[in-house]
Amino acid sequence: MIDRRLFFLGASTFAAAGFSGRAAAASAIKPDKASALIVVDVQNCFLPGGSLAVKDGDKVIPVINRLAKSFDNVVCTQDWHTPGHVSFASAHPGKKPFETIKLPYGDQVLWPDHCVQGTDGAALSRDLDLPRAQLVIRKGYHPDVDSYSALLEADKKTKTGLASYLKERRIGTLFVTGLATDFCVAWTAIDARKAGFNVYVIEDACRGIDANGSLAKAWADMGKAGVKKIQSGDVATAS
Ligand code: VGL
Ligand code: ZN
What we know:
With 239 residues, the protein is of the alpha/beta class. The protein has one domain (4-79, 117-232): 3-Layer(aba) Sandwich (Rossmann fold), CATH 3.40.50.850. It contains five helices and eight strands; from the N terminus they run H-E-H-E-E-E-E-H-E-H-E-H-E. The strands form two sheets. Strands 5-2-1-6-7-8 form a six-stranded parallel beta sheet. Strands 3-4 form a two-stranded antiparallel ribbon. Strand 7, helix 5 (214-224) and strand 8 form a beta-alpha-beta unit. Helix 4 packs parallel to helix 5 (214-224). The longest helix is centred in the N-terminal third of the chain and has 25 residues, at 2-26. Mean pLDDT is 91; it is low at 1-24. The chain binds pyrazine-2-carboxylic acid and zinc ion.
């Protein structure tokens, strides 16, 4: 009798501890002073109605706005192409958007014209509510080189300066959000891992283009690089 009571007490105590332990772990990713929220390319061209609209791209905005309240450090990126940029299909007679060509630095997907410097399409969405954002890093401004990654241009040599900025500020952990999951988000996350950062990608704070299986491939590549996939609900909210 005594044994049985003890067993039941023990079992229920164990179950309760196990359950709350798991629940705590799932919500225990707490951004600290050495963490930054990276908001990738939430620009009009990538939003519904834009020239390279990402399906449901606008859905990331409320999620990012909510997350930002938990971060001391917020950095935005902005795709910022010259008119007639090498990544535009319109710059290659006979080529159409989403075809791939060979450039000196490797394969390049061709895109509709997008995010041309100084245009409204290149502006960050006015619905972003990031009053504490500290830096907007622009990329893709060399006419002959694309830059999906916010750290390293597509030639894999030219640095944007973002890694050094973050390191000088002693920021070691990045939470990457924005558009598009399978291009600028993934390349930024993977290059950040290569540069030694601890990297989370917040899946529900991103949306993808998904051209020819690119979304599944991007998640696989990110996983191999040691990028951690999480959901916005896994990030501890500001107290
Ligand atoms: C992007 C394609 C071309 C992106 C930028 O932000 O993911 N994709 N330029
Ligand atoms: Zn671009």
